[in-house]
Design goal:
- The radius of gyration is 20 Å and the shape is globular.
- Helix content is 32%, strand content 21%.
- The chain is an alpha+beta fold.
- Strand 1 and strand 2 form a beta hairpin.
- It starts with a strand and ends in a 19-residue tail after the last helix.
- The chain has a 5-stranded mixed β-sheet with strand order 3-2-1-5-13. A 4-stranded antiparallel β-sheet has the order 14-15-17-16.
């Protein structure tokens, strides 16, 4: 089976037609990879957001390029699947119009709200949600901050989604949360009932009817809408999978088992592992994988690709990105230094 795979990362969209018939071909594009960057906006020092229009345009372009790379006569596409950064809050009105920019996981504007919640209700939150109230890690905090800045917003909201759910809505007309993303809303009883929490919905003043059903990431949410299919040159009604978080997708693609450890280096660095008997801890994230019933532990180090990009802009702007990352970084490995960073990170670690 050939699927159009859409990987929505922190700074770009990657798309490819994948042949899933052979396990060894699971992550191998049949004809090539299409990559389209998009812009993250920083409206203030703690802010990190993406225009919904720009995100969709990047997804649209990447999909078209990937489809063009794989001739339909040789690689007929039979489905569409998503892997997506999270959390990334998308608020919609009654007509499914996006009400505000998409606040992504790098945003820290809700730091004050997170600290207040941790002081007042921290242990209860941790034991039910599975994570501390983290700026950039719990989307309900982003919602609370947006309402604090624009009180009229609450009167306009009718639907509360994350980015993969919104993209699936664009593709199929159907709404849902996968289990992994639900765990990062701050509104889902991860450690107890595994359903939307009346307690935390009331705390954040999120109406339960705004929240759609929570399903496994492998769920076929619906068929590809006719207008999107026509634009992409695909048959209408192709099954579209909701998908789940990018870290979870990497764990699945790697065929990870209990006892394995994933180390992923992207905009940030991520460590993740399966856990049989999850126990929340302030020093890590505890959530459902998003596919099936497995739990995972996740930890972050903000010094990743973003730190190297910052260094390039700060001190090596006379070099192209290709020269900096392929030559300068390689030469740096050959040098020794006595310098130690205190604290040992350059970015805003949400933990």
């Amino acid at each position: 089976m050939n699927i159009l795979a859409l990987d929505v990362g922190t700074s770009s969209i990657k798309a490819a037609v994948l042949n899933t018939a052979e396990p060894t071909a699971l992550a191998t594009p049949v004809e090539g990879l299409a990559q389209v960057p998009y812009t993250i906006d920083y409206p203030q020092p703690d802010g990190a957001e993406v225009s919904a229009e720009h995100l969709w345009n990047a997804v649209d372009q990447a999909a078209r390029r990937a489809i063009a790379l794989a001739p339909k006569s040789r690689w007929p596409i039979e489905g569409v699947g998503l892997s997506c950064l999270m959390p990334a809050l998308v608020l919609l009105d009654q007509a499914d119009r996006v009400l505000s920019p998409i606040w992504i996981h790098l945003d820290r504007r809700s730091r004050a709200i997170a600290r207040q919640l941790w002081t007042e209700q921290g242990e209860e939150f941790l034991q039910t949600i599975g994570n501390r109230p983290l700026p950039g890690g719990v989307s309900a905090l982003c919602y609370a901050q947006q309402v604090r800045e624009s009180p009229q917003l609450r009167q306009q909201v009718r639907h509360y989604l994350h980015a993969n759910g919104w993209l699936a809505l664009k593709l199929t007309g159907e709404r849902a949360f996968d289990r992994g993303n639900a765990c990062f809303t701050g509104l889902f009883d991860t450690m107890t009932q595994q359903q939307w929490s009346p307690r935390w919905c009331a705390y954040f003043e999120v109406e339960p009817q705004w929240l759609p059903r929570v399903v496994c990431g492998t769920t076929t949410l619906g068929g590809l809408r006719a207008e999107i299919a026509a634009d992409w040159g695909l048959p209408s009604g192709l099954p579209v999978k909701l998908g789940t978080a990018d870290t979870s997708s990497a764990m699945l693609a790697a065929g990870m088992q209990s006892g394995d450890l994933l180390h992923s280096v992207g905009t940030t660095q991520v460590l993740a592992t399966f856990v049989a008997q999850p126990k929340p801890d302030p020093r890590r994230l505890t959530r459902l994988l998003g596919v099936g019933d497995s739990f995972i532990y996740v930890a972050h180090n903000p010094v990743g690709g973003a730190a190297l990009g910052w260094l390039h802009q700060l001190a090596f702007r006379d070099q192209t990105k290709e020269e900096f990352f392929s030559k300068t970084i390689s030469l740096a490995w050959q040098r020794r230094t006595e310098v130690r960073l205190a604290p040992p990170f350059l970015g805003g670690d949400r933990l």
